[in-house]
Specification:
4-stranded mixed beta sheet; alpha+beta; about 210 residues
Amino acid sequence: MTKLYDYWRSSASYRVRIVLGLSGEAWDTDVVNLLDASHKSPAHLARNPQGLVPVLEIDGQCLSQSLAIIEYLDETRKLGLLPKDALGKAKVRCLAYAIAMEIHPVCNLSVAKWASQQSDGKITMEAWMQRFITSGLAAYEQMLEGGDYSYGKGVTLADICLAPQIYNARRWGVALTQFPKAMRVQGTLEAIPAFQAAHPDMSPQT
């Protein structure tokens, strides 16, 4: 049985839940509570030396890093999350990486907490998140063409990254009206059952 080591509010885990839903794959969930440091336990570090979620056990293998997991699922389950042409792949990856490799690492909870602690509270968690999520989404907005999806006429890797980032933006009070193209895409994604089922508010962990 496929098993996802998951935390409900983890953006990276959220991405993988969406793709598992799109794939029709049945899976079990093993909760790794980031708030009580379960991700630093010997058992979890044996699965992923980085001490991060998600980790996916599938096809007799143990995979980490959400984008690597997603591309594995895409290739093995024929999901079509990347265009077939080289230029299309590059454009979709540019969009996805703008979130997963630019916004996400800076807005990781451990990074924001450290920044707040080092500033003796002069930088609040909210101010940090709002600053970097806003600037990151502003760039993403400029990269979008303005259609119903981030790229092309169907769900791609870019959309898989966008939906969890919009969730985080809402959580931290970012004004989203300034991103009309991104929110148009988000409206499309919110109507898709796999996106609905993967949403943190649907998680039994809450």
